[in-house]
Write a structure and sequence with these properties.
heterodimer, A: about 475 residues, alpha/beta, Amidase signature (AS) enzymes, eight-stranded mixed β-sheet, about 40% helix, globular, B: about 90 residues, mainly alpha, two-stranded antiparallel sheet, 2 strands
Chain lengths: ~475, ~90
């Protein structure tokens, strides 16, 4: 069976025409997940019984002609979306026994649409990482080359989509955690505008930066999924009450007259030549399709990584203070007194990267250092957001690389955390500004590893971004390439 | 530069017990991160309003009505140790 090669849109049509049932489709993907788990480690939790029950319910709904486009489609979820009755670990030992007692808004949205929860995907612990090597459940491998990392932190979702173990998967993006793994694994990934998708029930890392989004194999498939995920939810006070655009309906609008801004800072010395080549070729393709290109400048871009490594740890140290071994999650079996209970539980439950960030956060928020670090970073954050506002007076979309290199080998960057942090220089500024960003495959670099083109839109301009990505994918076939071992 | 004494203080604030030798490793890693962050000090931010959030909106308010029902049993079913509807911790007051 080659159902997994179909796009989500094609599968949706086949389900509607009853050429295949949701139960058959779900079984097919579950078998693929099981067969590839040893090679990729893309999933943390799979529960065939639960998934197949949902699939059977979807088939009943399709039979009664009450189906929506995602009814019966299996979707994998990053293991930080709480799903009632499902273990939700966030890639951490401290939540390794946590069975979520409620659904995230995103999960409710997929349930209402009749989608099938296919499983929970592996990730860097608490979404802190860029290589998926920080998971308490072991690293994920890149389907294009299993010696390489898949990127992170949504590495399990990216690998699952790239290896066609799921037609689409959710992710979250706090500093690039959807776009960078999408780039590394040759899939399409979209982080919507901050506030477009509810964060209710999404385990918090850095609340002013976190946003849920989607990884899939085309812009069209992402448009279908975003149409379900997005939406107002009063339980997230930062979720914006604003109608959804018709993401699918606008896909065919083309790019004639589209003004593309290229930030000169994104093409400076740090960018690998094997990445720069495919990016420039993609920009040329857009010119051929009728877009115009203008140089823009983001002068404070180089400050983004330093600002992020103050603000994100500060917010994380506060958010992660809830893991105390009292109400849920791991608890030390050597508690001693109450203070020892807290300290031992957290020392045992968190991995090294999470501890580093909690400590940085506690320090920059502490008395005497708050102004020099936290407040200063918030001021520079405004300068960085202002750069984008200025750039968007001259262009409709900004394009550039999503990462400075192709995927690197497992273990090659783990000894120097700061070096790995600095690789996120093209994705982090977008999170600081709260803008929507995307990565779509646009070629291959060294060792035949994929390269992603980053597309950044103005606030709530997801429909225009998806349209631009779709136009590129109609004219090229990079997004349709499949890793040989997983065809 | 953070001293080992400061590392111990931060670990206490963060409620993390450090294993023997872990403090020295953390000292080096945290100092590397702070060295990377220190470029911020040279930026002129006079008159710039801090940006705490990507949205310029006021926080929404809602009617003061009960919206949550009691789910104590559901939530305590996943707790490490409970008794009579209470979460148990080691004795705090002798």
């Amino acid at each position: 069976m080659t159902l997994h090669r179909d796009s989500l849109a094609q599968l949706s049509a086949k389900l509607a025409k009853k050429e295949v049932s949701s139960v058959e489709l779900t079984r097919h993907y579950l078998a693929r997940i099981e067969a590839q788990q040893a090679a990729l480690n893309a999933f943390i939790t799979v529960d065939a019984e639960k998934s197949l029950a949902q699939a059977a319910a979807a088939d009943a709904r399709i039979a009664k002609a009450g189906a929506a486009p995602l009814t019966g489609i299996p979707i994998a979820h990053k293991d930080l979306f709480c799903a009632k009755g499902w273990r939700t670990t966030c890639g951490s030992k401290i939540l390794s026994n946590f069975i979520a007692p409620y659904d995230a808004h995103v999960i409710e949205q997929f349930d209402r649409a009749g989608a099938v929860l296919l499983g929970k995907t592996n990730m860097d612990e608490f979404a802190m990482g860029s290589s998926n090597e920080n998971s308490a459940f072991g690293p994920v491998r890149n389907p294009w080359d299993t010696a390489a990392v898949p990127g992170g932190s949504s590495g399990g979702s990216a690998a699952a989509v790239a290896a066609m173990l799921a037609p689409a998967a959710t992710g979250t993006d706090t500093g690039g955690s959807i776009r960078q793994p999408a780039s590394f694994t040759g899939v399409s990934g979209l982080r919507p505008t901050y506030g477009r998708v509810s964060r209710y029930g999404m385990v918090a890392f850095a609340s002013s930066l976190d946003q849920g989004g989607v990884l899939a194999r085309s812009a069209e498939d992402m448009a279908l999924v975003l149409g379900v995920m997005a939406g107002y939810d009063e339980r997230d006070s930062t979720c914006i009450d604003r109608p959804k655009d018709n993401y699918v309906g606008g896909l065919g609008n083309g790019v004639k007259g589209l003004r593309i801004g290229l930030p000169k800072e994104y093409f400076a010395s740090g960018l690998s030549q094997d990445v720069a080549g495919p990016i420039h070729a993609a920009i040329e393709e857009y010119r051929r399709l009728g877009a115009t290109v203008v140089e823009v400048s983001l002068p404070n871009q180089a400050l983004s990584v330093p600002v992020y490594y103050v603000l994100a740890p500060a917010e994380a140290s506060s958010n992660l203070s809830r893991y105390d071994g009292v109400r849920y999650g791991h608890r030390t079996d050597q508690p001693g007194d109450l203070m020892q209970l807290y300290k031992k539980t957290r020392a045992e439950g968190f991995g090294p990267e999470v501890k580093r960030r909690i400590m940085i956060g506690a320090y920059v928020l502490s008395h005497g250092y708050y102004d020099a670090y936290y407040l200063k970073a918030q001021k520079i954050r405004r300068l960085i957001a202002g750069d984008f506002a200025q750039a968007f007076t001259r262009c409709d979309l900004i394009m550039g690389p999503a990462a400075p290199s192709v995927a690197y080998d497992l273990g090659s960057k783990t000894t120097d955390p700061v070096r790995m942090y600095l690789d996120d220089l093209y994705t982090i500024p977008i999170n600081l500004a709260g803008l929507p960003g995307m990565s779509i495959p646009c070629g291959f670099g060294d060792k035949g590893r994929p390269v992603g083109l980053q597309i950044v839109g103005n606030y709530f301009d997801e429909a225009r971004m998806l349209c631009a990505a779709h136009a590129f994918q109609q004219a090229t076939d990079w997004h349709a390439r499949m890793p040989e071992a997983f065809k | 530069m953070l001293s080992l004494e400061q590392i111990a203080g931060i670990a206490h604030l963060a409620r993390l017990e450090l294993a023997p030798g872990e403090d020295a490793a953390l000292q080096q890693q945290l100092n590397n991160i702070l060295a990377m962050v220190d470029v911020m000090a040279a930026v002129d931010t006079a008159g710039v309003e801090p940006m705490s959030h990507p949205q310029q909106l006021m926080q929404r308010l809602r009617e003061d009505v009960v919206t949550e029902h009691d789910q104590r049993e559901t939530f305590q079913a996943i707790a490490p140790e409970v008794e009579d509807g209470l979460y148990l911790v080691p004795k705090v007051i002798e």
